[in-house]
Amino acid sequence: MNGYLPPRAAGRTARSGARRLLSLPVVALAAVVFLVLPASQSSAQEEGASEALSQAIADYLDAQDQLAALEQEQKDLEQELEDSEAEVAELKIELEEYAYVASTTSDFQSTAALLSSGDPQDAISAMTMLQFLGESRADRLNQLIGRLAEIEATRETLADNITEQEETTEAMEEARDQAARELAGSGGDDAVGPSASDAPAAEPAPRNSDGTLPYESCSEDDPTPANGCLTPRTLHALEQAQIANFTRYVSCYRPSGSGEHPKGRACDFSAQPGGFGGDAGGDDFDYGQNLAAWFVENADALGVQYVIWYREIWLPSSGWKSYSGAGGDPSSDHTNHVHLSIR
């Protein structure tokens, strides 16, 4: 099998290229190869899921991410509330103890005795003590009032968060149902799907601080013979698959048609070493099975939107389903390649 190391995008900085290379072991780098085929075999010529189905899946995943972020925010708010209430309890005890001591035998009585002693220096010391005690306790009282206000605000934010979680859950369920409705016309029955893969886990794609995936444009050169552009996340998924030793022919970008290919967010992974041929069988079928399973197992890490393989489609909202929305040929039936769409 002839192969070549995928060229680095011209637009990438030397720093990002070096960082990517340094992060890969030598053996893994050796595995990152693509089979060169004639231009006539460079595309599987399929569109993936319909626009409506793809949008429903995207809506579901966006709502899922938002819900996860809200749940984390709820945990943070509950911890903040617990810490604030503990501090308020300590402040109340401190002020109550001071009030008791001051009203009996402590600061006020001692200070009154000093003021009546007739010694000017003692009187100055007494007044200084009164001022200090008054200011320090006033500060603590103001701190208590401030924390109580913060607690009330935190409770209101927490209540809003829970309401938003309920609304997001409803949106997620609606998107899931919409995806099921869109799929019903081209299958939609439960399917077994491929068994688990034994390939190593993928390195996660970068996420925002709240766990959501950042927006990405088609800004990276496509290293496959398709010669287009990819989003950074799609390129990451492609490279991670190669590192996991899925090194057969791949074609990603396609300038026309619907689906994610023209957006730089989809790749077709041939099951056969020599490109997109007929229905995969034997070792080729096993290769496709393992690859499809690997994408599903690493769906969260890679940001997978959906996977299609051998007349079945994997959706994050419902798992593997039968998929007959095709033209009866190996490419559109996805019996000769695994289709991957990335968010």
Element-by-element helix/strand order = HHHHHEEEHEEHHEEEE
Distance between the termini: 32 Å
Number of strands: 9
What is the mean predicted local confidence, pLDDT? 79
Radius of gyration: 32 Å
Which sheet architecture does the biggest sheet show? 7 strands, antiparallel
Number of helices, where a helix is a run of at least 4 consecutive DSSP H or I residues:
8
Q: Record the strand order, biggest sheet.
A: 1-8-7-6-9-5-4
**Percent of residues in beta strands?**
5-15%
The share of residues in helices is 40-55%
Overall number of structural domains: 2
- Overall geometry comes to elongated
Structural class determined from secondary elements:
alpha+beta
The unreliable regions are 1-43
Biased composition (Low complexity): 194-206
Keywords: Coiled coil
Coiled coil: 53-101
Domain ARB-07466-like C-terminal: 227-334
